[in-house]
Model the fold of this input.
Amino acid sequence: MAAREIVPDVYSVGVIDWDRAVFDELMRLNDGTSYNAYVVRGSEKTALIDTVDSDFEETYISNLVRAGLTSIDYIVVNHAEQDHSGSLPLVLELFPQAVVVTTEKGRDLCGSLHHVPPERVMVVGEGDTLSLGNKTLTFLSTPWVHWPETMMTYLEEDKILFSCDLFGAHIASSSLFGDASCRYQVAARQYYAEIMQPFRKKVGEYTARVRALGPAIIAPSHGPLHRAPAGILDLYEDWTSDEVKNLVVIPYVSMHGSTREMVVRLVEHLIERGIEVRPYDLGRCEPGQVAYDLVDAATIILGAPTMLFGPHPKAAHVAFITNLLKPRAKWIGVIGSYGWGGKTVEDLTAMLAKVDAEMLDPVYVKGKSDEETNVAIARLAGEIYKRHQDHSLV
Ligand code: FEO
Done:
């Protein structure tokens, strides 16, 4: 690993985790990740911006040495989650004069997560500044991206915004700066889908604020930096707007083929009506693939058979995640088949309560679908088409 100069006296000292395959024991990572951290060396004081996951603390300290650090005055904690604060205890031990700079909630979390004594913390809030001599840090209060304590730090003289998790991506790359490649954009969108999507409104507000601020470089906590910030800001403005796409996402499970048959019919009817469709067989797909498409989908149809007395657990799992992510979809529905009874539709409807979407009439049948089922599926496709058409999506 290495310390890399971003501009004179500002270094990237984070680490690349090429092999990480799962985050939060939930999200699959296709391309590893990085834990970014930075050094800002002023004429009088030196500040670290964030630390790294504790698994990599030796590499991190080595990077600080490579960046020529002999003393640290401030450690800015933009976000207290452990992938960024895990090495904080070691840094505080090695640099006993260093002061942690964070929000009030950040101070509480550093205390509970790492036992940082409050007397080593300087609390900052919106618009507060910290002079390093010839460089000035300004703090922006940006809670809930994606924890309550999050803030961003702006280096005024060099116009570099240290944006914490916001505008990041789980992608391991030897390139310091990101580009417009498909690989990068997919990673950035997957990251938004799984981390930032539940906070869409706030993220949209912060995106507008960053656009107005006009940074020359955005330096997030994961993935490459942005030296042409307009690209990532354009993407975030799209993802956080209220505008959905002409897309129906259909995550489904089928144990004996009945629910799959209904899904196949629905897909055919939607395609015939000019609607884009993404069916995901949850027996084969990761929930992350569904999350990726929830960013844009106007309609979500969950295909779920009844297992014993309620929804198949894989369908319930996706419903639970969808409810957490609170996608901007406008319509949602349930289709499927049951053997002898159960409350699958009621259970799934209750599980999706936080999704602010109109619930379409379910198509839920006993046993194998028949001609009557096919008519109901065609009617559902028509209802979806009508709504998409009324909103000028198709
Ligand atoms: Fe990358 Fe929320 O920590």
